[in-house]
Amino acid sequence: MSADVSVGTGAGTSTIGMGRIGWALADSWTITRRELAHWAREPVQVVVGLAFPVMMLLMFGYLIGGGRGVEGDYIDYLIPGMFALTMAFGLEATLLAVTQDLNKGVIDRFRSMPMANGAVLVGRSVADMLQSVLGLAVMVGAGYAIGWRAHGGFGAFLVAVGLLLLLRFAMLWIGIHLAMVAGRPELVQAVQILVWPVGFLSNAFAAPGAMPDWLGSVVEWNPLSATATAVRELVGPPGIADAADAAGASWAAQHAELLAVAWPLVLLAVFFPLAVRRFGRLSR
Known about the structure:
Elements: H1 2-41, H2 43-63, H3 74-86, H4 91-103, H5 106-112, H6 119-145, H7 153-182, H8 185-192, H9 195-200, H10 213-220, H11 223-235, H12 240-245, H13 251-254, H14 256-280
Helix pairs in contact: 1-6, 2-3, 2-6, 3-6, 3-11, 4-7, 4-8, 6-7, 7-11, 7-14, 11-14
């Protein structure tokens, strides 16, 4: 008798658990569809968000130039750096959307519904990741249009894309947390300024080896630099990352692929629970 009871209890618990997971996924997809509907109503904002990284690519690749310390074709060095930098672009839109929902009472209405806790944040993140995939596809197309080519095979290209999207996912949850801390749209401008130093203090445009030692060290340990260097190693021509980033000069440069995984995971481990906890306290 006791054995039958324990088996039945376990099955019931499993069914309830699966039901909760399905419920949370359905709620998250509802929020995702809401965010996607905003794209249709505001297509200009989407187009501008996709065009801005392409404009940056053309500006640094042809108008401004650059590539201090870079050997070989600068485009082979710049394109992977721009891929990584693109993963930081668009966080302003996420910050603004979250704070607007907070101030308009949208999130409070969602929280009053029989909806899985955190589905609002997950739905928001899924929509953002879909836009990031689209933006990355546009950047790859722009790169091919100006003569860049991926080396290393299709498998290496997929790994590079995975590293880029992992970085974006981590940056996204930093943005969601900061948006809830800021609380008001007018404070978003002060927070979003932080994105630019992180982006430009990276090796997206120039090699750390050509910088002063202290600045080069800061740049090499930037999470964006780790992802950019890892992508160069995966899809760039042989030697482009080693020659440009002086891979023998620092541990960070030698282990860029490891850091390209470790940095986003560390950031997620910190900011994902902070964001969820902050969301749970909003109406208390």
